[in-house]
Design brief:
Blueprint: H1 2-14, H2 17-24, H3 28-54, H4 64-71, H5 73-76, H6 78-92, H7 94-98, H8 101-126, H9 135-161
The structure holds protoporphyrin IX containing FE.
């Protein structure tokens, strides 16, 4: 039922000058998708680098804090770019995303992935050696990585699947 209440909003949004402009100028949507995908590549690669290190793979000659310091900015800074390009893609064809359960799943997985990334980042602010201190900490770090990777990969799958699952 909640999806139905979005219908008037989707119709209104599709009639706005912004949506009309994106719909009528051919290169805007492919350009937005390209920027979106480049930002996705940046976020997912950076998350992978940190998670591989937490799993004891990748650059294990360097402390987790050094890898996190290098790659965390490349997770957080592209997110506003993803939100902006995503919002414009939604404006172009509102019902395609806003009334699509896969889009909702994507946003839920995104909140989960961002939350898990914060779980890794916050302890490092107090103690740069937090994840390297003991076997127990390393085990916890591995668990965080094993939750983080599927969450980010899930966002990518859901993002791609929006185009293949019909909105309700
Ligand atoms: C921050 C908020 C975000 C919003 C509002 C958003 C919104 C969207 C929208 C509307 C589409 C187009 C779907 C379609 O019409 O086919 C899309 C595509 C996609 N999104 Fe996002 N997105 C966001 C973040 C992300 C993130 C964080 C990732 C991955 C880490 C991601 C991965 C993708 C992928 C892989 C596609 C398919 C691109 C394609 O092949 O055309 N998005 N997103």
């Amino acid at each position: 039922m909640a999806w139905l209440s979005l219908e008037p909003f989707c119709r209104w949004l599709a009639g706005t000058p912004v949506s009309q402009t994106i719909q009528t100028i051919e290169w805007i949507i492919p350009a937005l998708q390209t920027v979106h995908i480049l930002a996705v590549a940046c976020v997912v690669t950076s998350a992978l680098m940190i998670d591989l290190r937490l799993l004891g793979l990748g650059r294990h000659d360097q402390p987790v804090a050094a890898i996190a310091r290098r790659f965390l900015p490349f997770i957080w800074w592209p997110l506003p770019v993803l939100a902006a390009t995503g919002a414009l893609l939604i404006a172009a064809e509102p019902a395609r995303s806003l009334r699509n359960p896969v889009f909702l799943l994507k946003m839920e997985l995104l909140v989960l992935a961002a939350g898990i990334t914060l779980l890794c980042q916050i302890p490092l602010r107090r103690n740069a050696a937090f994840w390297d201190l003991s076997a127990g900490r390393r085990r916890l770090g591995r668990l965080i990585a094993l939750a983080s990777l599927p969450a980010w990969i899930g966002v990518v799958f859901a993002g791609r699947w929006i185009a293949y699952i019909q909105g309700v």
